[in-house]
Design a protein that fits this description.
With about 500 residues, this protein is an all-alpha fold. It is built from 21 helices and two strands.
Length: about 500
């Protein structure tokens, strides 16, 4: 039985507001939001930190639709599909309906994901207890397949940055032999690269450098009455079918390592566009269903992402990769034994996610006008705050100035990569998963005795074979969704 204190609600409350505001700001992704939130939790007790992070996660995902509808600029990558019909609705004078639909279906999708996490999580946890080195290797390899999704249309660049991340993850002591490698005689590197410091630099400090180049403000003159942000019964009835299948599809895609809210939103938009024959308006011209499908899937995938992360120890997307790192930092070890040894924390996370989803909806409705005013601030005004959080957060890791320099180094690397259109998300993913892939591969090779025996064990072991099939299916799904995305972009340009 968990002991729930009211102070946890306060942490969820503050985290949710931070997530909503930063999720609504174009360019400040949910991933970067979580990085900055995590930097605030160094030194905190575990449960308050979990409450704060879960609140920011729920708020950040929901906040992306606000700028997508009002500015035609998605606040998060998962809100890209919302732009297709959200902004046209605004141009028709129905921005209140568009915002109301987005927030309502986000609530429904988030609650569906929560329910599925509660029931499916323990089931997957029991299956995961049967994993051996082969299954661990394949499941981490599956996670690294996220590189294809994070590559922004260029697989080669994504693979290159992933290899950089794998190399960084190998710096320090060899986990099998105990020998030092790639340290170049440096005592600072003998303990390896602190992935949290690297993560703060690649997402947080990098963004500070990027924002220094921008002084743009957005012309936002809209304001809405709270009562107008609740969709009517007629609209709810119209979007109900799309909301139903998008919840299920979004959660299932969230379960897949290498997928997540971005892919779920895009897939559900495509499915809805194919299935719905009589939308409220033509798709691309302000269809209610075109907002309901991606926003439902976006929030439903949260439950799927967390299910995979908590029970298998594999992040479903770049956001949960950061959350996974923060859990390690606070002493939690998500994975196959999590439901056995730390089950109480599973229920804490479940409770915090539920409250955070409700808060995100309420604050989204009540505070929409305030968030639109925040969009008027010049983007460079955020730089001092971002920089301060990055420096404090990286120093607080071990009270060591070397972590600050490490963070700044990775901030510069991230900025250079960003300017050259190289995605930085695969680096963080590879830093976290690379050592896991290496250790499990080498342990599996030692246990089987030869490369041939290891390869055959992937087919002869039932669980390994299932995961291998899922990896192949995941790559096929990614290929399909990337092609669909390219077609959608071409159509939007035309």
């Amino acid at each position: 039985m968990i002991e729930f204190e009211l102070i946890y609600v306060w942490y969820i409350f503050v985290g949710c507001i931070i997530g909503l505001v930063m999720g609504a700001l174009p360019g400040l992704t949910v991933t970067m939001t979580i990085v900055l939130v995590v930097s605030l939790t160094f030194g905190w007790e575990m449960i308050p930190a979990l409450a704060f992070i879960m609140g920011a996660y729920a708020g950040g995902v929901m906040g992306g639709s606000i700028s997508a509808i009002t500015l035609n600029i998605p606040g998060t990558a998962a809100a890209v599909s919302t732009v297709f019909d959200g902004y046209p609705l605004k141009l028709k004078g129905e921005a209140n309906n568009a915002l109301g639909i987005a927030m309502f279906v986000s609530l429904i999708g988030g609650l569906f994901g929560f329910i599925m996490l509660a029931f499916v999580g323990p089931l997957i946890g029991k299956i995961a207890l049967k994993f051996g080195s082969q299954e661990y290797f394949l499941i981490t390899l599956w996670g690294i397949s996220l590189v294809a999704v994070l590559s922004q249309g260029n697989i080669l660049k994504g693979l290159l940055t992933a290899f950089v991340g794998i190399f960084i993850g190998m710096i320090g002591m060899d986990p099998i032999t105990g020998l030092m490698r790639f340290t170049f005689g440096s005592k600072i590197l003998s303990g390896g690269v602190n992935y949290i410091a690297a993560m703060i630099g690649l997402f947080g400090m990098k963004e500070a450098f990027v924002q220094l180049q921008k002084s743009k403000t957005f012309n936002v003159d809209e304001s809405y009455k709270i009562k107008d942000l609740f969709p009517s019964k007629k609209i709810i009835k119209k979007i109900f079918p799309a909301m139903t299948w998008s919840s299920a599809i979004g959660y299932i895609i969230g379960l897949l390592p290498g997928a997540g809210g971005d892919i779920g939103a895009l897939v559900c938009y495509g499915v809805t566009k194919s299935v719905v024959k009589n939308p409220s308006s033509p798709f691309g011209e302000g269809a209610y269903e075109g907002i309901a499908a991606p926003e439902t899937a976006n929030d439903a995938s949260i439950g799927g992402d967390l299910t995979t992360m908590l029970t298998l120890g594999i992040p479903g997307d770049s956001i949960t990769a950061v959350i996974l790192g923060s859990f390690y930092m606070h002493g939690l070890l998500p994975g196959p034994t999590f439901m056995l040894t730390d089950k109480i924390y599973f229920y804490y996370i479940l409770s915090f996610l539920f409250i955070g989803t409700l808060f995100a909806y309420v604050f989204g409705i009540v505070g929409s006008n305030l968030m639109l005013k925040v969009l008027k601030f010049p983007k460079w005004s955020l730089v001092p705050l971002i920089t301060l959080l990055c420096v404090i957060g990286s120093y607080a890791l071990q009270n060591n100035i070397s972590d600050v320099f490490m963070m700044l180094f990775f901030g510069v690397i991230g900025y250079i990569f960003e300017m050259r259109d190289y995605p930085v998300s695969p680096i963080v993913l590879a830093i976290i998963l690379g050592p896991m892939i290496e250790v499990n591969f080498r342990q599996a090779l030692i246990s089987t005795g030869s490369p041939v025996a290891l390869a055959s064990s992937f087919v002869t072991r039932p669980l390994a074979l299932v995961i291998l099939i899922l990896i192949i299916g995941s790559f096929l799904l990614q290929n399909f969704t990337m092609k669909s995305e390219n077609k959608s972009e071409i159509k939007s340009v035309e």
